[in-house]
Amino acid sequence: MSQSLASAGPAAAPTAEVVITGDLGRPARLTVPDLASWPQHTARVAFECATDGMRYHRFTGPLLHDVLADTAPAFDPARRKDRLRFLIAVRGADGHHALLSWAEIDPDFGRAPVLLAVTLDGTGLDRVGPQLVLPQDRCGGRHISGIDAIRVDGGYAGAVTAPRGPAPATPGLG
Questions:
Q1: In the prediction, which pLDDT does 7 show?
Q2: Residues 53, 110, 65, 125, Cα dihedral to 10°
Q3: What pTM was computed for the model?
Q4: How many CB atoms lie within 10 A of CB 76?
């Protein structure tokens, strides 16, 4: 039985949502509780801050690769290693941006354990949104709080063209 608005008590704060778009077969809208249903990984990170010194944190969440792979990126199976031309743009609600390559997170290449963190030091991030965590980055340069959008893009390949004329000779290859 549903409750009326008057009897429901104080309004619950809205849950943050991440919109995943781009060259995908299944774009998605995910909340922190959605992301918490994925297999969770833990990263202990030390951020070296110029003004505050070392900061230590523990993040948990799914791997970015696993979440994005589920959205069916539009890799062309006829093109060898097509997935290597894809970029991932991440935006936080505060306007911060970060850019990653698919090769960085792909288990067949860089295999970076990049997280979409749903907890920070044991505290859930339901209302503020997930955080992008790259444990391998010194000083958290690409750490993004309150992620609200992720775009997977492989459509810029036409901008790269081959030089005209014969290919330059490469010593030792021939």
A1: 41
A2: -10
A3: 0.81
A4: 11
Residue 13 burial (CB count, 10 A)? 9
**How far, in Å, CA of 61 to CA of 46, rounded?**
17
pLDDT digits (tens, 9 = 90+) for 34-43: 999 999 999 9
Per DSSP (E only), the strands in 32-168 are: 41-49, 53-61, 87-92, 97-101, 115-117, 119-120, 123-124, 131-133, 147-153
Tokens of 140: 């958290």
For residue 65, the SS3 value is helix
Contacts of 15 (CB under 8 A, 6+ apart): 31, 32, 33, 126, 127
- Residue 163 CB neighbour total at 10 angstroms: 7
Strand partners of residue 116: 132
Condensed to tens digits (0 to 9), the pLDDT of residues 93-144 reads 999 999 999 999 999 999 999 999 999 999 999 999 999 999 988 778 899 9
pLDDT score of 4: 36
Q: Which residues contact 174 (CB under 8 A, 6 or more apart)?
A: none
Nearest of 86, 95, 144 to residue 115 by alpha carbon: 144
Whole-number Cα distances in Å, 29 to 32, 52, 67, 110, 171: 10, 35, 11, 26, 50
